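Hi there, hope your week has been kind to you so far. No rush at all, and the record is pasted right below.
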Amino acid sequence: MELRSAYDYAKLAIEALEDKKGVDIRLIDISEVSVIADYFVIAGGENPSQIQAMCSNVEEKLGRAGCVVKQIEGYDTANWILMDFGDIIVHIFDRENRLLYNLERIWRDGKQIDIEK
């Protein structure tokens, strides 16, 4: 399957996060409210090892599909990893920082997409 859209890559990132048991995964379409990206993928992890594994799996799966990560921030501390793929930005949080930064509230003008569909 050839991936073409940012949405396709976002769905692939979600699959990669689910593979590593990511918690409370959300997809927010921010294309109408920001120029920094089209989508935010937000997920939680239980501990630094899991959070780093989630990050590595996203990078590997998207890379194999032709979507190369431009920058990764926070990998060493693994309390909030930000992965910039250009049109999509993946955020992987530990529980404490997810509650603290609450990106879903900050980006509430974006459109939450039901990933179960």
About this structure: Strands lie at 23-29, 39-44, 71-73, 80-84, 88-93, 111-113.
